[in-house]
Amino acid sequence: MLKKILFCLILLALAAPLARTADAQDATPVCVGAGCVHDDDVNRVAKKLFCPVCENVPLDVCPTQACIQWRATIREKLEAGWSEQQILDYFAQQYGERVLAQPSTRGINILVWVIPPVAVLGGAVAVWYFLRQMTRARPAPPGAPEGGPEPAEAGPSPAAADKYAAQLEQELERRR
Amino acid sequence: MAQTLSETQTASSTKMRLGQILVFALVLSLLALVAFQMRRNGPLAAGPVGAGEKAPDFSLTTFDGQPYKLSELRGKVVVVNFWASWCIPCEQEAPALENAWRHYKDKDVVFIGVDYVDTETEARAFMKRFDVTYPNGPDLGTAISQAYRIKGVPETYFVDKTGTLAFVKVGPFLDQSELMGVIEPLLNK
């Protein structure tokens, strides 16, 4: 009996590596080498494209058949050794520039890149100018000499400050 | 002193007016640039292209490299079908289109398939599966579909012998007779 159990254990021990080999063969083959294209590589490019059929959904997460085909095309091109920019140019030429997540800097599209910073800068200048005008237009406080310092710089006169300080002292004394 | 203040105010006002003119000129030139670009790209009108309108001209090179230009097909009835391999209703109408084409190919009728937002591999596989023999080519840059302002696929446009759109079908044709019902009157006109 003991011999039989020992025999079974030896058999199991010998079969274990075989089972592991079978497991390894069932799993997705690990891609190695220069021409290897991973899903992450495909998605990196796909993220920069939008399919016109399903607008507002980036290609890397778009579930439609058209998008699946597009991702397959990206994989084919990557496997053929195309660069990311070459693939993006190919898609723009095939399906129009509207498929690009970032508009190109060619032609009228340059406005998309130029107008926002110019508008922000122009707005900032306008606000600065407006505030400057407002500050200048503020009337001088009563008692300030004509043509004296800028209103923003003009504080209460020492006499007025003394008067207020004395009043404050009186109020505090009364409360004690 | 009062005069100096008045002079300062006048200078400031002139500066402000100059700024306004500059901003106005900038906005105007931007609008002009956008309008020019839109006019160059195609018609400014919105909404679908309908029957009775002049069919927008287009050029298409088939998957086999054969060039076609709509304006060069005057005197013939032209059936322009927008489709894609990923479109299920396109599969439904593919046999009807092919049968109609085979029926009319020796008459003055031209069928042109415009493959919309598709990959060439899948498009060719689709054509092989449904034994499509009429001219088909990719809609490069989606220029043709934009000119016709299609809303989806399939869509079929029937151009009469004078180059005017006679009928527009949105959605798939159910059978060959439905197609023939549109083509026959145009052919006999």
Verbal overview:
The complex is a heterodimer of chains A (176) and B (189). Among the domains of chain A are: 34-102, Orthogonal Bundle (Helicase, Ruva Protein, domain 3); 105-136. The model of chain A is unreliable at 18-28 (pLDDT under 50). In chain A, 60% of the residues lie in helices and 0% in strands. Chain A has helices at 2-26, 39-46, 65-79, 84-95, 110-137, 158-175. Chain B is an alpha/beta fold and 189 residues long. Chain B folds into two domains: 1-41; 59-188, Glutaredoxin (3-Layer(aba) Sandwich), CATH 3.40.30. Chain B has five helices and seven strands. In chain B, the strands form two sheets. A five-stranded mixed sheet of chain B has the order 5-4-3-6-7, with helices on one face. A two-stranded antiparallel sheet of chain B has the order 1-2. In chain B, β3, α2 (88-104) and β4 (109-115) form a beta-alpha-beta unit. In chain B, α2 packs across α5 (176-188). Chain B is elongated. The termini of chain B are far apart. The A-B interface holds A 51-53, 64-66, 69-70, 72-73, 93-98, 107-108, 111, 115, 122, 129, 133, 146-147 and B 1, 12, 19, 23, 30, 33-34, 37, 84-86, 117-119, 121-122, 138, 140-143, 146.
The name of the CATH superfamily of the largest domain in chain B reads: Glutaredoxin
Order of helices and strands of chain A: HHHHHH
- The total strand number of chain B stands at 7
Percent helix of chain B, as a range, is 40-55%
CATH architecture of the domain at 34-102 in chain A: Orthogonal Bundle
**Basic shape of chain A:** elongated
Q: Return the average pLDDT of chain A rounded to an integer.
A: 79
**Secondary-structure element string of chain B:** HEEEHEHEHEEH
Integer count of domains of chain B? 2
Stretches of chain B where pLDDT is under 50 for at least 5 consecutive residues are none
